Write the structure tokens for this entry.
Amino acid sequence: MITTHARAVFNPEGPFKLTAIERRDLQPHDVLIEIKYAGICHSDIHTARGEWGPVQYPIVPGHEIAGIVTGVGSEVTKYAAGDRVGVGCMVDSCGKCTNCHKGEEQYCLNGMTGTYGAVDRYGQYTQGGYSTQIVVTEDFVVKIPESLQLDAAAPLLCAGITTYSPLRHWGAGPGKKIAVVGLGGLGHMAVKLAHAMGAEVTVLSQTLKKKDDGLQLGADHYYATSDPETFKTLAGTFDLIVNTVSAKIDINAYLSLLAVDGTLVNVGAPSEPLPVHVFSLIPQRRSFAGSSIGGIRETQEMLDFCAEHNITPEIEVISASQIDQAWERVLASDVRYRFVIDISTMMNE
Ligand SMILES: [Zn+2]
Ligand SMILES: [Zn+2]
């Protein structure tokens, strides 16, 4: 076993403590990664606090991982020591079902293995990226292009792919009108990506507080959803609405903003059901959809796209001792736009 330093919570209330965890010895297809940076995702908080179902403690969150390969198993062909690599929200899947065969491992019919809080094929409880090292099978490792800084690349592994995949799936591009609901960690990536794909991008945010930011990030228009006029002005406008908000919103009001054949896709995951009136959908042949991260092949494509278009998230780098504070700030929406932990500070007080 490979002993690894990590920051873990030991109960739903926290706080984080420095601890040691074990990574498995390298199997023939395994890659050992020295983690340099780990992004902080809102899901880390929901999961570690048991809000999305029971978890086992201690738990080490983190599924936006960027680092350097330091060792490989005997049959690894894709990676070598020194490679710059990333790991996202999943570390394994069955590899046999139709969805795995299509390269959509996130929809594995036998359930993909989450980067933390899951049981892997070796019967070990997975622990995430708030740690110094991780062992992952090579098929679930992606290459980080040279032109992307490792700290800024980390959030692409969840926030980036979560927004890239639905934008691609529903054809964001020139001539398409895309709305992004919420300008947080996910939303700001959706704006940058949709803009780079050539779409006309509108941000729908509760207030106009971040309007200057939004326009700078690449949005063409910015509207406050607290203003009822917004819903009248924009009725029937959008080909695609990407909803990144995980709070309960009036989904029917947003559906009314879709054009004929438009789709509203939720990537934010509210814990309560959203009541949808079928008559919000029928008259304009609209769709209400969901989307979860992206497959490994698509994640690589997203990283290459970001390198090519020079897209990186806006980040604030913190030390490992500041994770508790950072979580409080995420919950207070006081982050522009993603916290990234500098893992070299792991042992610091
Ligand atoms: Zn995430
Ligand atoms: Zn599968």
Remarks:
- The chain has a mean pLDDT of 97.
